[in-house]
Amino acid sequence: AATVSGDYLVPGTIRLYRVSDGLLIRLLTHNTSNVQALAFSADGTLLASSSADGKINVLRLSDLVVVNSISVFESGNPVPGTALAFSPDGTQIAQADPYAARIYRLSDSSPQGRISGGANAVAFTPDGQWLVVGNNLDVRLWLIATIAPLPTVQTHSGGITAVASSPRGDL
Predict the structure, then answer these.
(1) For residue 154, which phi and psi values (nearest 5 degrees)?
(2) What share of the chain is helix, strand, coil (3-state, %, to 5)?
(3) Residues near 21 by Cβ (< 8 Å), separated by ≥ 6?
(4) How far apart are CA 60 and CA 24, in angstroms?
């Protein structure tokens, strides 16, 4: 994952590098188990991680403090995410996992929606009104306010591992 500004880069493990000179800024140790997914907020001030223990940790990059920690469970078991995405305004975070796509409000960690069925990838549209969800068969757009889908966008013969929306939100 990389910030939109290109100032910071996080390869597979959570080591925070400054892009301009490749300097290792910090080895981040706030996760207690293997990291499965990472995402930067649109303004580059937050870094979220999902780990094998089912926790989404949100780290403020200015002082490297965990400002939010959300525990994700399904039938009493921790659920690691396969992908994370911040809403454009930074108030929500979405997680894709083997059971669902989930949306949480960051101010109080409350669940805002759960879209049943395994998900491999999630992305918010630029207006923050829709969540793009990719799974093993298709890509769907879900209206966040009602958790209602548009018809299937495309059926695939293989799993979808990443999704994105165009900056204008028309694709």
Answers:
(1) -160, 135
(2) 0, 45, 55
(3) none
(4) 17
CB–CB of 57/51 below 8 Å? yes
Structure tokens at 163: 């999704």
User: What's the DSSP call for residue 110?
Assistant: -
CA distance 21 to 104: 35
Nearest to 166 by CA among 83, 112, 88: 88
Interval 72-115: pLDDT, tens? 999 999 999 999 999 999 999 999 999 999 999 999 999 999 99
The predicted structure's pLDDT at residue 9: 47
Complete DSSP assignment for 27-89: E----SS-EEEEEE-TTSSEEEEEETTSEEEEEETTTTEEEEEEE-EETTEE---SEEEE-TT
* CA dist., res. 137 & res. 99, Å (int): 14
Place of tokens 């094998």: 52
- Contact at 8 Å (CB) between 106 and 91? yes
pLDDT digits (tens, 9 = 90+) for 19-72: 899 998 877 777 667 788 899 999 999 999 998 889 999 999 898 889 999 999
C-alpha pair distances (Å), 92 with each of 41, 147, 151: 10, 14, 24
CA distance 57 to 49: 5
